[in-house]
Amino acid sequence: MLAEHLEGNIRFLQSVDSWEDGIQEAAAPLLKNGSITSAYVDDMIQNVHTNGPYIVIVPGIAMPHAKNEGGVNSTGVSYLQLEQPVVFPQNKEVKTFFVLAAEDSDGHLDLISDLSSVLMEDEIQDKLEASTSEQEVLDAIKMAE
Amino acid sequence: MANSAQATDNVVEMQQPSTRAKVQAFGGFLTNMVLPNIGAFIAWGLLTALFIPSGWIPNEELAQIVGPAINYLLPLLLAITGGRMVGGQRGAVMGAIGAIGLIVGSDIPMFLGAMVIGPAGGWVIKKFDKLIENRIPAGFEMIVNNFSIGILGFILMILSFYFIGPTIEAANNLVTAAIEALVATGLLPLLSLINEPAKVLFLNNVIDQGIYYPLGMQATAEAGKSIYFTVASNPGPGLGLLVAFTFFGKKTARRTAPGAMIIHFVGGIHELYFPYVLMKPLTIIGMILGGMSGIAVFSLFDAGLVAGPSPGSIIAYLGLTPKGSFVGIIAGVLAGAIVTFLVTSVILKMDKSSEETDELASSVEKTKSMKQEGKQVSKSTSNTKQAASKKIDTVSFACDAGAGSSALGATTFRKKLKKRGIEDIEVKHYRIEDVPDHSDVVVVHADLVDRAKMSHNDKEIITIENYINDPNLDPLLDRLENQ
């Protein structure tokens, strides 16, 4: 389920200028395919400003998301892998972004469940970090599903 | 308890921001102090524009709220917000106590004063708390906490009361002398140098009623109109400022500026633009240049009003414009608006380029103070140790939206329960404010504990920083397994 949604929404970059930039780059595929509007990208960034970097869900991995206040057209996820980590407030370093755009608070729970399985396995996390192509990321995620 | 140890570590781990970051944080600090309170300014502005004797629908009864709201409510809100940003909830209380001394000790609304005393009060109590940390004998925490604020606040209240009266009198004298000197030079546009800062500091009444109106009435008796009525009341520059914020301000400021614009320009309540200047003090340059341009154009057209416009709305302006002055008055208002708009836009845009670091620094600052509170909460969590013996049926994960990270945390926790073969525990995710009352344990990210505490102070709160493998969750799993 998660792998299915990620297809075509996976990017690799050397580095980004700031964590805000990272969220923007990571969300770019969703913006492009119309799942979200730029308002949702702003909301995700604002969320960190307002509530702190709690979206860094485990060390090294951020899950940017926000409440859907009209900026989400359809549920989607996208993925960004950085070679150089970017620093969030409180000096939290992040190399991997899973952007979550949820239309409502229920429709995406299977995605979250898959993500949870992915993150619970250290082995899969290592594979993700080492991956350099979309296929490798998808394969790693399918291991958990 | 693992909890409080963890949180304490985090506080220690937090790095001090660099001096540069601190300077940049200051701008963000002012903004964060003002922005949450804009709604109160708007409420007051609407009330004033409608119900004061010269308002749209004068109402003597409702107009009674106007004075107390601007003298007490708005400065107190600023002081509370400022105090909380520095010293948490205790800082907020200290800030308010300090501000009331200023408010009662002065006869003008104390906005700037509140923005100084609020954070200062927060700082005092924070330092004091740090000083006596771990030195309070067990069982005396409550009494020490309350009496420390009580006694320090008592002193702060008296100091600010006695400090503010003479300070304002001195400022008034200074402003009056400066204005008289400038009027004597005949270079009227220079008046804006004093007028605009004085307005934002609420010193304008002494200028308007003490100098400009008498001068204006004198001139009107002879010429039928006077430019002095316009020098400090031109609604153009404020309009320009708010338009600039509408286009180039940061998110929240951008969204609120249009509303403020209507109340300012049509309602004539200039106070509505003050908070925007207070949060970006550099924009006063735009106000001064706009004011100057307005006065220059008024003099150029030899325009004037027949009486002091109060409130200074565009409608009052046009109503008091004598025949033959319409072009000049309208041109002067427009000139003020356009010049202020252009200058303020440049200032805001320059500011935007440094916004990233600025925002970063301010959020570092903010999360620091939240951590501080997180620490206190964790302490109180360990106080409710007896809860540990209670049977736990419901564990609620909470976050800002109740859809993303809390869902992730809850899902993962359920999987762990399953792995350990633990059954019949309800694990769900919610928006913080929606966590149901029957929850035995609330799990929330350390950054959000402040909010969680507000709604669920009676429940056991566990803070985490990692939604998958947080060490603070292990004791909970053990407890669930053994109960």
Automatic annotation (TrEMBL), chain A:
GO terms for molecular function: kinase activity. This is Ascorbate-specific PTS system EIIA component. Pfam families: PTS_EIIA_2. The keyword Cytoplasm applies. It comes from Halobacillus salinus. Its main location: cytoplasm. Residues 3-144 form the PTS EIIA type-2 domain. GO terms for biological process: phosphoenolpyruvate-dependent sugar phosphotransferase system. The phosphoenolpyruvate-dependent sugar phosphotransferase system (sugar PTS), a major carbohydrate active transport system, catalyzes the phosphorylation of incoming sugar substrates concomitantly with their translocation across the cell membrane. The enzyme II UlaABC PTS system is involved in ascorbate transport. It comes from the Bacteria. CDD domains: PTS_IIA_fru (cd00211). PROSITE patterns: PTS_EIIA_TYPE_2. Keywords: Cytoplasm, Kinase, Phosphoprotein, Phosphotransferase system, Sugar transport, Transferase, Transport. GO terms for cellular component: cytoplasm. The keyword Transport applies.
UniProtKB/TrEMBL annotation, chain B:
GO terms for cellular component: plasma membrane. The chain crosses the membrane at residues 38-57, 69-86, 92-125, 146-164, 170-194, 282-306, 326-348. Its EC number is 2.7.1.197. Keywords: Cell membrane, Membrane, Phosphoprotein, Phosphotransferase system, Sugar transport, Transferase, Transmembrane, Transmembrane helix, Transport. Residues 365-376 have a biased composition (Basic and acidic residues). GO terms for biological process: phosphoenolpyruvate-dependent sugar phosphotransferase system. GO terms for molecular function: protein-N(PI)-phosphohistidine-mannitol phosphotransferase system transmembrane transporter activity; protein-phosphocysteine-sugar phosphotransferase activity. Residues 26-341 form the PTS EIIC type-2 domain. The phosphoenolpyruvate-dependent sugar phosphotransferase system (sugar PTS), a major carbohydrate active transport system, catalyzes the phosphorylation of incoming sugar substrates concomitantly with their translocation across the cell membrane. The enzyme II CmtAB PTS system is involved in D-mannitol transport. The lineage of its organism: Bacteria, Bacillati, Bacillota, Bacilli, Bacillales. Residues 358-385 are annotated as: Disordered. This is PTS system mannitol-specific EIICB component. It is an enzyme of class 2 (transferase). Gene3D superfamilies: 3.40.50.2300.
